[in-house]
Amino acid sequence: MKIEKALTQKMYVKELDTFTSETEPVIEKVKSENPFYIQCKVNFKTLKTEYTLRVKKTPTKHLTAEINSLDNKRDSTTKGLFGIIDAAMFSNDAVIYHSAQRLKDLTNQYNRSIYKEPLSVQTVQTDKLIEKLETEYKNDVTNLNITNWVTTLKQDNTDVKNASSNRNSALASSPENNASEVAKSLIKSYNKLASLLTFMSEDMGDIEATKAIEELNIIISSHNSRIRSRITHNQNQEVEETQPQ
């Protein structure tokens, strides 16, 4: 009995994981003494375990939520600082007025809508702004009595940087980043087993191999059907999107 060809090359990451999870126990049922089959089975099981580990994403949702929360806090501090500078422009005190003017010119250089910039851009720009406020414009900051605001903004920016670094580290260490390479080896290993099972069934009359193929063909047929439906659906969508309205 011949095993049906599985559309493994067309499977998405999790589809391949599900497919191999369903086929592995069927393959395990065949207790052949064929040394090639035994070796292939061990190799397949090892790769399958490795692949499953790699497709399990490191949970980063809570880290993203933390970054968003810290970013919102930073935005509020930035708006508050700019607001105080704007208000100081109405001061009758010449010292305060001139310092406010200088600070407003400075903040204009770093974009008054800095809090609308992408996260990484805002972080870099905020660092540069703080450096100026703490050095070249330090006296102006003192004149407006906004040193605490600058300190808070600096801490807010540091908190965002640290949280972003933590998320990047978690993503970098996520096993899924290397799943594609393991997938190639896993598919190759599966194909070897499929060829061996067909040989054992047709040429050696192995009953267990034949039974396994019967079960595997049901699984393969089910997966292939879903994959073909998905491909057809995607192709139809592409056609609709390219048609003139």
Structural notes for this entry:
With 245 residues, the chain is an all-alpha fold. It folds into 2 domains: 8-57 and 177-242, no CATH class; 61-172. It is 78% helix and 0% strand. It has 9 helices and no strands. It has helices spanning 13-29, 35-55, 61-88, 94-109, 119-134, 138-143, 147-172, 179-202, 207-242. It starts with 12 loop residues before the first helix and ends with a helix.
Walk me through the topology:
Elements: H1 13-29, H2 35-55, H3 61-88, H4 94-109, H5 119-134, H6 138-143, H7 147-172, H8 179-202, H9 207-242
Helix pairs in contact: 1-2, 1-8, 1-9, 2-8, 3-4, 3-7, 5-7, 8-9
Number of helices: 9
Shape: rod-shaped
Distance between the termini: 51 Å
What is the number of E strands?
Answer: 0
Order of helices and strands: HHHHHHHHH
Strand content: under 5%
> Structural class of the helix and strand makeup?
mainly alpha
Q: Which keywords apply here?
A:
single chain; 245 residues; mainly alpha; 2 domains; rod-shaped
Q: What's a quick, concise take on this entry?
A:
The chain is 78% helix and 0% strand. By secondary structure, it is mainly α. It has two domains: 116 residues, no CATH class; 112 residues.
